[in-house]
């Protein structure tokens, strides 16, 4: 959605809002609850999810690395929080025993896996001459010209539409053929990160963007970071891997050097590119080549690692649900979730009562149920007690929630 202009987003969100309002009974605020999430908040929510999952086992300094299709985010608490000069956010935990945390978060648009690869295709379509095989075939059988792509395995071919940003009728279809050359792929990938841009406010990462140096930070890399590590054989699907990006690059070089028919699978077409792109990103972020400060992970403690969990926790503790959450069994985010996850107690279909001749006083001996007089008195008393308890609970919840809001500034 962030790739679309505001005018193109508007009808999509209007449709979403109308659908939710017309077809559900959710407590829904159209202007606030259906919107495009900014990239920095995506990174912050990923960091909040990690903090929730890790709990007391979280490293002193930790961060999240997320690599999606359109964008990529880096979020972490640097060793010198007072030195964050921009892209700085306070995260306030509703559990008052934990101090507020100041973190750095930045999102790079069009630096996600799909968009970066699309930019590479565009670059190759302009700069690299097509390979013409016409002289090797009879005229009627000659294949169309192809452009060599070092970031694809040898033997793999792919048709891509390029030039579509140049206006009406500018799109053309180009066929790429793989070379499987990791070192040349890495050279091209570095050019996508614009490491040559002027660093106006040092230190800088890619595209001349300011970023504190992540010394001593333990990073958890998810999404496409993990999928590539899994695809090139560094980590099992349910495992985790702590290795250097130099090791990552070595595994990628070996993977890219294999023919397509040896590695072909539903997702393998992007792994050669990814195996060069991931080390390039980490190097641009200031992580040394031999550092093992990055953990590649898909799940932790039974939770999927990702920003959506953090977004849910933020809404429950900062939004209109905060007052209800304050009545949960705990003031921690887990307690908030518990408050909303309790199963509804249904009325039993039958109750086994003593035989009529031994029924306790106040029960109808014929049915085993409360007599009408006893039932009415009990019902009145029950409603009176429930009313008093509800009023007290409301006052307590309002008081507690006012102290436990979790704004994210």
UniProtKB/TrEMBL annotation:
One GO term (biological process): nucleoside diphosphate catabolic process
Active site: 42 (proton acceptor)
Membrane spanning stretches: 377-397
PANTHER family from the UniProt entry: ADENOSINE/GUANOSINE DIPHOSPHATASE (PTHR11782), GUANOSINE-DIPHOSPHATASE (PTHR11782:SF83)
Source organism superkingdom: Eukaryota
Species in which this protein is naturally found: Chrysochromulina tobinii
Keyword Transmembrane belongs to the record: yes
Keyword list, A-Z: ATP-binding, Hydrolase, Membrane, Nucleotide-binding, Transmembrane, Transmembrane helix
Keyword tRNA-binding: no
Signal peptide: none
InterPro entries, A to Z: GDA1_CD39_NTPase
Cellular component GO terms held in the UniProt record: membrane
The family this protein is said to belong to: Belongs to the GDA1/CD39 NTPase family.
Protein name: Ectonucleoside triphosphate diphosphohydrolase 1
Pfam families hit by this protein: GDA1_CD39 (PF01150)
UniProt: ATP binding residues: 69-73
A molecular function GO annotation: nucleoside diphosphate phosphatase activity
């Amino acid at each position: 959605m962030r790739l679309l202009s505001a005018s193109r987003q508007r009808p999509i969100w209007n449709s979403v809002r109308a659908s939710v309002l017309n077809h559900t009974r959710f407590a829904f605020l159209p202007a606030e609850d259906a919107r495009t999430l900014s990239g920095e908040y995506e990174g912050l929510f990923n960091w909040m999810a990690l903090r929730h999952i890790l709990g007391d086992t979280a490293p002193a300094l930790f961060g999240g690395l997320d690599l999606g299709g359109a964008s990529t985010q880096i979020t972490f608490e640097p060793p010198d929080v007072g030195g964050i000069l921009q892209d700085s956010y306070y995260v306030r935990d509703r559990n008052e025993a934990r101090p507020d945390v100041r973190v750095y978060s930045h999102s790079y648009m069009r630096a996600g896996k799909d968009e970066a690869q699309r930019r590479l295709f565009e670059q190759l379509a302009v700069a690299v001459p097509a390979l013409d095989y016409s002289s090797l075939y009879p005229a009627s059988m000659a294949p169309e010209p192809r452009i060599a792509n070092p970031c694809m395995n040898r033997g793999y071919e792919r048709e891509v539409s390029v030039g579509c940003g140049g206006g009406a009728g500018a799109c053309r279809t180009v066929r790429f053929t793989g070379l499987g050359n990791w070192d040349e792929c890495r050279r091209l990938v570095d050019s996508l990160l614009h490491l040559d841009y002027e660093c106006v406010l040092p230190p800088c990462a890619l595209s001349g963007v300011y970023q504190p140096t992540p010394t001593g930070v333990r990073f958890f890399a998810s999404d496409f970071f993990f999928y590539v590590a899994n695809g090139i054989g560094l980590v099992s699907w349910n495992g985790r891997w702590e290795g250097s990006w130099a090791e990552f690059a070595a595994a990628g070089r070996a993977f890219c050097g294999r023919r397509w028919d040896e590695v072909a699978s539903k997702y393998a077409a992007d792994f050669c590119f990814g195996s060069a792109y991931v080390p390039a990103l980490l190097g641009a972020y200031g992580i040394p080549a031999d550092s093992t400060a990055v953990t590649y992970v898909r799940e932790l403690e039974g939770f999927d690692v990702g920003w959506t969990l953090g977004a849910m926790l933020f809404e429950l503790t900062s939004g209109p649900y905060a007052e209800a959450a304050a009545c949960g069994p705990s003031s921690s985010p887990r307690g908030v979730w518990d408050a909303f996850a309790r199963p509804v107690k249904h009325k039993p279909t039958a109750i086994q009562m003593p035989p009529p001749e031994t029924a306790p006083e106040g029960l109808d001996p014929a049915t085993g149920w409360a007599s009408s007089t006893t039932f009415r008195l009990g019902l009145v008393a029950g409603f009176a007690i429930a009313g008093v308890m509800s009023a007290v609970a409301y006052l307590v919840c309002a008081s507690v929630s006012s102290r436990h809001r979790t704004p994210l500034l």
